[in-house]
């Protein structure tokens, strides 16, 4: 049986009546940014020693559930939407938060494996954080093609991670005072990064439900040619 031109037109109309999948799903980024910012903010307050808090064990719930699971779930939907950058960043930091949370769980016996809070333990923890700072450099470069807020988030996060790693190395060397100063500086940059994360949450929620928006400082126009070539 052969299809007439009219039948083909009707078929096309039916196809167009159903939107593509990415047009029918919500934006997963606000949840991810909220989990990222909330967890980083609590850690940053502890790093700065607010109200005498320095032990971070209480934040295992945020690290392993809010951040780790929240970011990983959001990342899968970024992949469905075809957003490679979003999927990579959210998956990476979800796993980072989960991994860091695991180091704070006494039942895992990580500290005991090093014989307590020894220089070797602090050096190992410093390496753990430092290598994530190296990975974050690639995210900084990629964020240049998006907006100024993303750029600032990754730059301040880079400073937070680098200073945090340095504080652990200072502890390993027995420099307690230097370590405390570096940790507080790391907390300051983490605090700034978390506030920028909340700004992103406000941007995406306003974009979805309110008649106004908050600006992100779009930089994609500077990379339009490169993006067009990749497509």
From TrEMBL:
One of its GO terms (molecular function) is acetate transmembrane transporter activity. The keyword Cytoplasm does not apply. The chain crosses the membrane at residues 31-50, 57-77, 89-109, 121-142, 148-171, 183-205. InterPro entries: AceTr, Gpr1/Fun34/SatP-like. The keyword Transmembrane helix applies. It is a multi-pass membrane protein. It holds the Pfam family Gpr1_Fun34_YaaH. It comes from the Eukaryota. It is found in: Membrane. GO terms for cellular component: plasma membrane. Keywords: Membrane, Transmembrane, Transmembrane helix. Belongs to the acetate uptake transporter (AceTr) (TC 2.A.96) family. This is GPR1/FUN34/yaaH family-domain-containing protein.
């Amino acid at each position: 049986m052969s299809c007439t031109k009219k039948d083909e037109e009707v078929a096309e109309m039916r196809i167009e009546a159903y939107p593509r999948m990415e047009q029918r799903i919500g934006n997963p980024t606000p949840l991810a940014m909220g989990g990222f910012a909330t967890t980083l903010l609590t850690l940053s307050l502890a790093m700065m020693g607010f109200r005498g808090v320095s032990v971070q064990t209480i934040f295992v719930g945020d690290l392993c559930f809010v951040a780790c699971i929240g970011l990983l779930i959001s990342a899968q939907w970024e992949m469905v939407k075809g957003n490679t950058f979003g999927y990579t960043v959210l998956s990476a930091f979800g796993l980072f938060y989960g991994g860091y949370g695991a180091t704070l769980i006494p039942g895992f016996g990580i500290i005991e494996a090093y014989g307590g809070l020894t220089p070797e333990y602090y050096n190992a923890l410093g390496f753990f954080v430092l290598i994530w700072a190296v990975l974050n450099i690639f995210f900084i470069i990629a964020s240049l093609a998006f907006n100024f807020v993303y750029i600032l988030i990754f730059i301040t996060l880079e400073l937070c991670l680098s200073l945090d790693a340095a504080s652990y190395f200072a502890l390993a060397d027995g420099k307690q005072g230097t370590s405390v100063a570096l940790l507080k500086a790391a907390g300051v940059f983490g605090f700034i990064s978390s506030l920028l994360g909340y700004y992103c949450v406000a941007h995406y929620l306003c974009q979805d439900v309110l008649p106004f928006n908050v600006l992100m400082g779009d930089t994609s126009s500077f990379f339009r040619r490169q993006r067009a070539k990749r497509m």
